[in-house]
What we know:
single chain; alpha+beta
Amino acid sequence: MTTDKQVTMPDLGEGLTESDLVEWTVAVGDTVALNQVVAEVETAKALVQLPCPYAGVVSSLAVEPGTTVAVGAPIMTIAVEDRSGAESAPQHSAPSASAAATTATDAPPATQSEARPAPERTSVLVGYGPLVDSSERPHRRSRSPEWIAAHTVAEHAAGMALAGHPVGPKVLPPVRKLAHDLGVDLNRVQGTGHDGTITREDVLHVVSSSVAAPGAHRPTTAARPSHGLPPAVHRPDSAPPAPARTADPREVRTPVAGVRKQTAAAMVTSAFTAPHASTSLTVDVTPTMELLDQFRADPALDGHRITLLAIVAKALTVAVAHNPSLNTHWDEAAGEIVEYRYVNLGLAAATPRGLLVPTIKDADRLRLADLADAITALTSSARDGTTTPADLAGGTITITNIGVLGVDSGTPILVPGQAAILATGAVRRRPWEYRDEIALRHVMTLTLSFDHRVVDGAEAAHFLTDVGAILANPGSVLRMV
């Protein structure tokens, strides 16, 4: 005897109220194990793999890929075997990204003996059920590709009908998502697969032949290809396309969603809430560049990628200790100024999904080599799209390295909730006064934006000159620590 259990979109924490369902990794009729990944969802902050809170058979998928789903809304149904009337409650009563992993004692009675300890998987939603060894997951019988395709389509259609959704053309979920991303109307596509099923090739043929339905959204050229498309056709990085509002083929409209939507809202909130002020300082960083050369030749630092950004980050943590007002937060609701006695350093990173600000926790306690390793790891995960919501939360002050883009200077907008952000410009060889003469020196511009409610102009200037002094003369840090 089986019981249908409804799976809802979990609360992914950090105040997020909705997520975009990017892709199903299972189909109707599949047998799934407890904590098996069944979908990939995209929040405004990160991509998250969604584990299944039940072991059973997929009865229905209630949401199409590319759909924005509110927290608590049903997304799928699992047929769970009823064993001696035991309750098979889901393991996500408090499934926030910051929650601790569920222990074996919290698992349903029918699965406690089956669960085994497993290595932590940071890409899977934490606190959503105990990990199960993959060797214990049931496997489906070997079927031919044709059989799987035909039956998966039929089962998916049946599941959608039971969930109250229109069935539409015969198409597998991945192909349906591909068509959704490219703005192809599946009702106008002739399927060439088994029993009229629409295939990937059918969708791509429509795109390449430029015969997509009138008014369909034209794909945006993105930074990375997806779905194995030809080089000229890329998947939009933001979720789901909206119908175009113009027939002019020279205009491309991309819906505002995901990271782009969150970034826009945060920047507007910051710009119109905190009174921004800024100050700049141009510094001769030749001694720091020479120090970098020494570090790169030091065998003791092999395996550590020491960069100018790492040294700037270290200088910032030292300067914060002397200028604590820069590491604060204006708490409007409480009517208080919160001064942090630790530095959670945010690093603004440009990614194909938009601007992300991963955070190095307790950066002030890290040695230079460890700080450099943390910077390398976080920026890499941000660009790969594997940053977790926890990595994007809790920042107290931020650095944005606009110099890597070839820009000399700029005025950054504060990250909401923070009192300061430091922008580092490109390092240029310029004529500069040096020992009463003109010489070619390595020069860079530092720009500090700050919340004038919390930070006075003099405090901002002292902080910036402290950072500049360390970069102009790394030995000066000895008198600051």
